[in-house]
UniProtKB/TrEMBL annotation:
This is YlbD family protein. InterPro entries: YlbD_coat. It holds the Pfam family YlbD_coat. It comes from Allocoprobacillus halotolerans.
Length: 53
């Protein structure tokens, strides 16, 4: 099921959560993007590089 895959994916990139908290995206928007383009899409690259303290 894709929702479980998305949840696992998000846990590997904590910076994505900050985008939701800050109001830039909703979880629904991010999930739809994940379903349409997958985890290897360049959209995720900036978040993979961010290290949260």
């Amino acid at each position: 099921m894709q929702i479980d895959e998305f949840k696992t994916f998000v846990k590997t990139i904590p910076a994505i959560r900050e985008e939701v908290v800050n109001g830039r995206y909703t979880w629904q928007q991010l999930y739809e993007f994940y379903v349409l383009y997958g985890k290897d899409d360049p959209m995720w690259e900036p978040y993979k590089k961010v290290k949260l303290i």
